[in-house]
């Protein structure tokens, strides 16, 4: 396939729009009408007709297909303790190992489980700067994988260091998670695929054909690669007697929120999905062109999506889908979309509207979605099967966010 792109499609001069009055008029694609204009009236038609065609479009034109199958070759518990965090938790660090085409890759899952729960439900999510950043626990290993530089965390020359131990503890609220009876499993995302425009490392080369040096136009970018890693973690959980594999909640923030949504859409084993400030290519409607746009995200991060997605740079009106239909692909499983008031780049209103416009699909399953097109007040969550909140503050994960996620998971997975 040969596709020609104009300079405009790669972004050109870019000034983000933060003015609601300048949002272009557009038609929201109907998730309950097929590409051939057939109305979808029940669950059977959704699952036989509409869901497959939407999943196929997102696969080949947004995130990219995975060109083959690669299972866990072996796994190894490289460290564990039944007396972690001052006796509150069990800790386990597990390497998942893969090899193919002369390449070898492993990534490590850090798992904390509450001691008083025999088979624990688990929040699973990637972290940005290494497993050791989510806690001050000195026993957590420091990854040797490539990392994005962040001198304030002591990360230079793309290497993680002891200086960054615990620097993202606030984003994970591990104590609250454990006290609520949940486990936490986290993976340093760059161990699966380094977050840079270079497809010579990470998971991609393991599935190249002879002579291939980068994915084809409809093949997986980094988000789909990170999604693949989450599914392999799920494969492992199905073999771990201490984890309730039927109650794994996939979570992600920012680009990893985009990843969590795609993981929930493509792997129906995940019991629930949480998207925190995921923005463009995540929960936010692309056609609004508010904050970050398709052109800007493809210009700044050309490795995240498949190359076919570049066709829609400054051309969102031609998209036959939008991100509410990504959320709809998760139905009938619970999904939580969260925004922050000051995070205009991620378009909070666009994130909310996606949750709202996905709700008719949930209604087919007699699940409650977002009942009104009016956004809720700040810090006033709507906690239905499709849940949403917008909180005070910036692009981040906060204690408030985790408090809502835990309450919602209790309600949706345990009817508490």
UniProtKB/TrEMBL annotation:
User: What Pfam families does the record tag this protein with?
Assistant: GCE_fung
What keywords does the record list, in alphabetical order? Answer: Hydrolase, Serine esterase, Signal
Write out the GO MF terms: carboxylic ester hydrolase activity
Q: Does the keyword Endoplasmic reticulum apply?
A: no
Tell me the domain of life: Bacteria
Domain annotation 4-O-methyl-glucuronoyl methylesterase-like: ranges: 219-363
Tell whether Cell division is among the UniProt keywords.
no
Report the InterPro entries cross-referenced here.
AB_hydrolase_fold, GCE-like_dom
| Protein name stated in the entry | Acetylxylan esterase
């Amino acid at each position: 396939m040969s596709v020609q792109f104009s300079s405009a499609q790669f972004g050109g001069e870019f000034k983000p729009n933060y003015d609601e009055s300048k949002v272009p008029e557009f038609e929201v694609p109907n998730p309950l009408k097929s590409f051939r204009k057939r109305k979808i009236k029940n669950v059977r038609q959704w699952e036989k007709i509409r869901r497959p065609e939407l999943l196929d479009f997102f696969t080949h034109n947004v995130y990219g297909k995975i060109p083959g199958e690669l299972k866990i070759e072996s796994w190894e518990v490289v460290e564990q303790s039944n007396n972690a965090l001052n006796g509150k938790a069990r800790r386990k660090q597990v390497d998942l190992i893969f090899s193919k085409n002369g390449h070898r890759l492993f990534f490590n899952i850090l798992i904390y489980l509450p001691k008083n729960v025999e088979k624990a439900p688990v929040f699973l999510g990637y972290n940005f700067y290494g497993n050791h950043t989510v806690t001050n626990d000195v026993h957590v290993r420091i990854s040797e994988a490539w990392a994005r530089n962040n001198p304030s965390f002591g990360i230079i020359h793309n290497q993680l260091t002891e200086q960054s131990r615990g620097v993202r503890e606030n984003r994970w609220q591990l104590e609250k998670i454990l006290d609520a009876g949940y486990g936490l499993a986290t993976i340093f995302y760059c161990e699966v695929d380094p977050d840079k425009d270079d497809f010579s490392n990470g998971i991609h080369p393991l599935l190249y054909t002879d002579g291939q040096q980068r994915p084809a136009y409809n093949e997986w970018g980094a988000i789909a690669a990170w999604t693949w890693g989450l599914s392999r973690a799920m494969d492992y959980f199905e073999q771990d007697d201490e984890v309730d594999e039927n109650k794994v909640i996939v979570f992600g923030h920012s680009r990893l929120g985009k990843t969590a949504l795609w993981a929930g859409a493509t792997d129906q084993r995940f019991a629930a999905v949480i998207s925190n400030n995921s923005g463009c290519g995540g929960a936010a409607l692309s056609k609004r062109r508010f904050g970050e746009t398709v052109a800007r995200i493809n210009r700044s991060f050309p490795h995240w999506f498949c190359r076919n997605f570049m066709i829609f740079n400054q051309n969102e009106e031609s998209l036959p889908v939008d991100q509410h239909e990504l959320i709809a692909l998760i139905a009938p499983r619970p999904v939580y979309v969260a925004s922050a008031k000051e995070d205009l780049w991620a378009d909070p209103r666009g994130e909310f509207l996606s949750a709202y416009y996905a709700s008719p699909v949930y209604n087919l399953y007699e699940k409650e979605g977002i009942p009104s097109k009016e956004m809720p007040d700040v810090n006033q969550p709507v906690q239905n099967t499709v849940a949403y909140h917008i909180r005070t503050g910036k692009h981040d994960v906060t204690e408030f966010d985790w408090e809502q996620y835990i309450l919602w998971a209790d309600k949706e997975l345990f009817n508490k």
